Amino acid sequence: MTDLAEGEKRGWLQRLRSGLSRSSSKIGESITGLFTKRKLDRALLDELEEALIAADLGPATAGQLTAALSKERFGKDITPEETRGIFAAEVARILKPVAKPLEIGAAKPHVVLVVGVNGSGKTTTIGKLAQHYRGRGLRVVLAAGDTFRAAAVEQLKIWGERTGAEVVAGAAGADAAGLAYDALARAKASGADLLLIDTAGRLQNKAGLMAELAKIIKVLKKLEPAAPHDCLLVLDATTGQNAHSQVEIFKEICDVTGLVVTKLDGSAKGGVLVALAERFGLPVIAIGVGETADDLKPFEAESFARSLMGLV
Question: Fewer beta carbons under 10 A from the terminal one: N or C of the chain?
Answer without folding.
Answer: C
